[in-house]
């Protein structure tokens, strides 16, 4: 379809539409079509709003922080430096894939362990320590061997070596957060309950 930026926008919108159609098809019992009965939910509207409001604010802040860097470079610099920034992001994309795969593994495992024993804080504590250590080693390795990585990728990535160390913290910190905030999903609480050991562990 060409090398215009609109192609990326069309592809993203098409993918989101496809995912939405599949999600509605799989969970059709929660949607009202042509007067169908909807499966009752265990939580009320006000409860869902109280739970989701902080997450909505967090999502908006995340989108703002993820966009402001590109807008700032475009506004106060030039397209050449913006290209270098994207080149550095391509390298970090490998770590993003690691983070996505870990999330796909960790989410069902954490729910399974919590269902078996809700008070088993030791497992989650050890998992958090292990993930933090592994992410620290990966981040340190990328920082120490960034020139080697760029050399292996090719000369076009050479100028992106100085930008890459700052971007490595995005997937590293996101992966760590996947382990440390899972208690919110378990208890559906956005506030710390001092009486609950496992929920307090994630804070």
Notable characteristics:
single chain, 3 domains, 203 residues, globular, disordered C terminus, mainly alpha, 9 helices
Write up this protein.
- With 203 residues, this protein is mainly α.
- It folds into three domains: 40 residues, no CATH class; 33 residues; 125 residues, no CATH class.
- It contains nine helices and no strands.
- α3 packs parallel to α7 and α4 packs antiparallel against α7.
- The C terminus is likely disordered.
Secondary-structure blueprint:
Layout: H1 5-26, H2 45-76, H3 79-116, H4 121-144, H5 146-153, H6 164-167, H7 169-180, H8 182-187, H9 197-201
Pick out the low-confidence regions: 193-203
Terminal CA distance: 47 Å
Mean pLDDT comes to: 79
User: Percentage of helical residues?
Assistant: over 70%
Element-by-element helix/strand order: HHHHHHHHH
Per DSSP E runs of 2 or more residues, the count of β-strands stands at: 0
- Cα-atom Rg, whole angstroms? 21 Å
Q: How many DSSP H or I helices?
A: 9
Short description:
Helix content is 74%, strand content 0%.
């Amino acid at each position: 379809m060409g090398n215009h930026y609109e192609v990326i926008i069309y592809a993203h919108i098409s993918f989101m539409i496809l995912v939405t159609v599949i999600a509605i098809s799989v969970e059709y019992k929660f949607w009202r079509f042509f007067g169908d009965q909807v499966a009752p939910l265990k939580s009320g509207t006000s409860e869902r709003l109280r739970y989701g409001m902080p997450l909505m604010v967090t999502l908006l802040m995340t989108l703002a922080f993820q966009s402001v860097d590109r807008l700032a470079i475009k506004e106060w610099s030039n397209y050449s430096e913006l290209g270098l920034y994207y080149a550095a992001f391509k390298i970090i994309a490998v770590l993003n894939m690691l983070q996505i795969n870990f999330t796909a593994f960790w989410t069902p495992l954490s729910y399974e362990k919590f269902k078996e024993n809700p008070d088993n804080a030791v497992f989650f504590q050890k998992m958090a320590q292990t993930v933090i250590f592994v992410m620290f080693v990966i981040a340190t390795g990328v920082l120490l061997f960034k020139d080697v990585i760029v050399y292996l990728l090719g000369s076009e990535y050479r100028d992106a070596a100085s930008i890459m160390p700052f971007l490595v913290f995005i997937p590293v910190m996101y992966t760590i957060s996947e382990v440390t905030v899972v208690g919110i999903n378990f208890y559906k609480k956005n506030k710390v309950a001092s009486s609950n050991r496992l929920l307090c562990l994630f804070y």
